[in-house]
Design brief:
By secondary structure, this protein is of the alpha+beta class. Helix content is 42%, strand content 22%.
Length: 106
């Protein structure tokens, strides 16, 4: 047990191990492909159209997974309340006027 405490990231030494651990967790959000367009490419001696594909990770799914972490939502809301009260130093976007305008109807 104490060996784990001395080096808790021992099993996450490589990028492959880190991705495997993340994919096996319930917090992984799989990137989704989307079509950017096409390009012309020489394949087997012929000029052909090839799809150009990008990847994105949906923000809504990412935020949902994040706020499913125990106490993440409560801690975030508590912090937001704290910095709203502390207006002597502007240190966060939610202390600004744009945030106030955007959230005034909520």
């Amino acid at each position: 047990m104490f060996d784990f405490l001395m080096n808790p990231f021992e099993n996450l030494a490589t990028e492959h191990q880190r991705f495997s651990a993340l994919k096996n967790s319930k917090y992984y959000v799989k990137p989704e492909p989307y079509l950017i367009g096409t390009r012309r490419e020489m394949l087997k001696g012929k000029l052909q159209n090839v799809d150009v594909v990008g990847q994105h990770v949906p923000l809504a799914k990412t935020l949902q997974k994040f706020f499913e972490i125990p106490n993440a939502l409560k801690d975030t809301l508590d912090y937001m309340a704290y910095i709203r009260k502390n207006d002597s130093v502007f240190s966060n976007f939610i202390q600004g006027s744009l945030w106030s305008k955007k959230t005034s109807g909520l």
